[in-house]
Amino acid sequence: MLVELTMHSAGLGPAPNSPIDGIRILALLPEEWRKDLRQANGEIVIRVETGDDITSTEISARVKEALTDPTVSHWRLYACDPVPGPAADAP
Description:
Layout: E1 2-9, H1 19-28, E2 34-40, E3 43-49, H2 56-66, E4 75-82, H3 86-89
Antiparallel strand pairs: 1-3, 1-4, 2-3
């Protein structure tokens, strides 16, 4: 499954526009997921491809668990949106 994760700062901790936090979050997500940091300017957007039949609800739970780490606990998951693949666009 391919999803786009959007995280917003909870207003605590370091400046929210630091790309270092995006890199830290990438490292905390499951190793087997393919991850791409799309944006780290005021919010963090990460595209994740799990490669299995995991649901977006399960992905959200794993991300929320990762965000309990003290180094990134000032971030909150705002959205976990499925990204349609090429098959979704086919007639």
